Amino acid sequence: MRVKKKDIFFQTLENMADTIVHSADYFAQQVSDFKDVEQFAKQMKEFESKCDGYTHTIIVELNKTFITPIERDDIMNLTTKLDDVIDGLEATTSRFFMYHLSQPDEYIIQFAEMLRNSAYEIQKAIHLLSQKKLLAIREHTIRLNDLENQGDELLRICIKELFAKVSDPIELIKKKEIYERLETTTDACEHVANMLESIIMRNS
């Protein structure tokens, strides 16, 4: 029996989601102890380049494919939103390296766990999209919204703590930017959820 070849768009979106999981997993592992920040930043850059390659594949395929499994704009927007997630993780890691951050703190570790959980929700949702199980995606978009709310709350807590405890202005600026970048990356995960919601609405 011949196995039907998976649609190139769905396959590439799945590859992107899988790469997001690998990078968020790696990010969460590395953040718990900053052994080799340079290597950490290098590996995250590789994950990001891999996703750029998938984005390129989708653009090339969109330009030569007449009939797509879902609307062309939806494919492109979803690809961009997925790419934003990995860009956020990579940009945060490069800040660890540039700012010579030697010690992670509990807030960075909590954000990393949140982002790891979000990555798994994205992966499950994208695999369901491939199977056209649209309504089943909802439970994952709800969880992504919830994780983003937790990210908002965590940002409020850690910024308040930062201003209460850190008096060195340089240290304060570095930490504040890192916390905000992490929270922006949880926003990027929610943007994936919102995009999936509009795909559900249009196709169910």
TrEMBL record:
Pfam families to which the protein is assigned, alphabetical: PhoU_div
UniProt similarity note: Belongs to the UPF0111 family.
PANTHER family noted in UniProt: UPF0111 PROTEIN YKAA (PTHR37298:SF1)
The protein, known as: DUF47 domain-containing protein
Species of provenance: Paenibacillus faecis
Lineage start: Bacteria, Bacillati, Bacillota, Bacilli, Bacillales
